[in-house]
Each structure stands twice: as structure tokens, then as C-alpha cells.
Amino acid sequence: MLPREPLLRNGHLLAMSSIVNAVLGAVFWVFATHWYDDRTVGLNYATISAATLLSTIGQLNLSDFLVRFMPSAGRHTRHLVLVCYLASVLCSVLVSVGFLLLVPTLNPRLDFLLTPVTSMFFVAYTAAYAIFALQDGALTGLRHPGWVVAENMIFAVVKILLLAVGAALTLFAGILISWAGALVVALLVANAFLLRRAVPRHETEAPEAARPPRLVGYATADYVGSLFRMAAYSLLPLVVLNTLGPAQSAYYSLAWIVGYVPYLLATNMGSSLIVEAAHAPGQLAQHALRVLRHSALLMAAGAAAIIVAAPAFLAFFGPEYAEHGTTLLRLLALSALPNLLVSLAVDVARMRRKLRLVVGVQLALCVLVLGLSSVLLPVLGLTGGGVAWLVAQCLLALYLLVRRSRWLPQAAREKEE
Question: Is-annotated flag, keyword Coiled coil (predicted)?
Fold first, then answer.
């Protein structure tokens, strides 16, 4: 049963969306690993990871910007959404074209993307995925997390159906085609509701004095920080691909899908915290402690469940996934516990506009994860990636705990003590 308090209820709905998406995503990859060989799965997943990273670069972190400022955009809400959409599409096209030009140098294994048809497909997919992220931010900022759940379910179900069609036709790019087709359907459904109902209602209820936010400096700094975070998430599968090969990349990628679920709880509760604090800035300290205490219990239970059931989770993908990925998955689940504090500190600092801390923490995460992985993967194999995540998160959490006066509001610190 969902809590009545908006802070927790909306966070739970967003978490539900992520969990449903993760579960159905896992089902998708179960089918993919049975219908396609390990090499094809590894290459397709690496391609999707590259497109996800490029779309993150292209969307300029405007999804988080919309979560932060949609509540106060007032009668300029539609203009704000459309400007963000346009900027993200243009930038996504530029970065994806640049990536394709560099594929022969950066990752020759992805040279199948360089034919005219697949190149145009890749560019369009990257731009569309940027809009997919932005619409979630807009719906969250307008307090419609239920629609975030709905559109993610649509995306996941359509993706599985199209995967079956691709496998029946023995298409090498069937995995990519299924993602792209599902993306189109989800975009049409979500934006029909967002632009025709949610935005007009918000503009009608907004006060006359509402003005659009003009925070280019804020958006730029927040964007830089998000790039470092997403680089850690999205580049590591490519590092595994280049270091250990396509099959090991597939094992890492599917373990990450499961191990990332507890991370999503922290992200979603943080989004709810930002939206509620935007409506009531004076309650930021109270909301932060409420989220930390509530999420810690859920996080510990979820991490424990993953650690115990790791072999069973991975066995759904095939016995080789359980054999190679169990230790990695357990380390990833453990790393989600310190990540709760890291994620909360970044969200509170974002609300308080302490952007040096926002950028610094995410830069440190990127450097630690990629640096440690580059050293440990050749020595420990996939386990090295899990050790890198756990060590990086623990070091950052320890630093933020010791230096909590830099990000935690005074009222929260006094209550804590």
C-alpha cells in the first residue's frame, strides 16, 4: 500500500516504475540471451549503452532541470518543455554523428553501425531516447508519477513483442530495432498526455506572476556533473568489451541490470525530494532526513535479497551468466548502500545550488570507477568491476559523512545530533 505523504508516495511510484521496467527489462534480456548468441547480445548491449550515454550528453541533463523547475514554470511550462526538447534533439544528433565518425578509432567492434541505414537509425534512436528521458522529468515535475509508470510499462512490453518479431526474422539488429520501435510508441503516448492535458492544467492553475526560470549557469554545471555520473554507468560496459571481449561484456551488462535496481530507489526518492522541496523550500532539511531513513530500510532489504538470490536471478539468463556474474552482482548490490548517501547528498546540494559539490562528487565517482576498473578487470575479471563500484561508493559516502556540513542543511544536522 502506498504512503499518503506525497514525498514518499510519489517516490514509491517512481521506484515502482523503475522496478517494473527493470523486471520487464530482465525478461527482455532473458529472451534475448536465448534467441541470440552471446556475441550478438554483447555487441547490441554495448551499442545501446553507447546510445544511452550519447543521449545523456545530448539531453543536457534537462530531465533533472525539468524536475527542479517545472513546478515553478507557471504559464511558461509548455514553452520550457518544448525548448528543452528542441535543444536535446539538436545536441543528440550532433554527438551521435560525432560518435559514428570516431567508431573506427574508439571501438572497431561496432563497425556494423557504419552502413548508411544503420547510421541514420542510430542517430534517430539517440535523439528519441533523449526525449524519452525528458518526458519522464516533465511528468515527475508536474507530479504525475503514475504516468511515468504507465509509459515505462508500455515501453517494456512493446520492446519484448518486437524482439520476438526480430528473432523470428533472424535479424542481427533485432535487439536494437525492438528498442527503437518501443521508444516511438512510448513517446507518442506519454507526450499526448503531457502536452494536451498535464501542461495546460498546470498553466491554468499557475499564478499570474510566474516566470520561466533563467538559470543557464545552473543548468550548465548540473549537466557537467551528470555527464561524469553517466560516463561511469555507460562507459564501463565498453571498457569490459574492449578488455575482456563481447561474451564478458554480456555477463557484466546483465548483472548490472539487476544490481542497478537498488540504485534506482535512491534516484527516484531523490526526484520526489526535489519536487516537494521546490513546492516547499523550507522543508528541505526535514524531507532529506525523511527520505534517508525511509530509503535506508528499503535499500538494505533489497540489497540483501539480491545478494542471497544472485545466482537464481542470473540463471534466468543462462547458466553461464550465473557462473560468471554472481560475485559481480553481489558486489554491485552492496555498493548501492553507500550510494544512497551519495545520491541524497547530490540531490540536496542541487536544491541548495551548491553546484561545485554536485560536479565534484560525480567527477570523483567517474574517475574512481573507471580508474579502478581499468586496473582490476585484467586481474580479477568481472569481479574487478564490482570491487571498483563498491570501493568508489564507500570512499565517497565516507567523505560526505565526515563533511556533511557542506551539503546537509543546518536544521537537519541539529536534529541528527
Answer: no
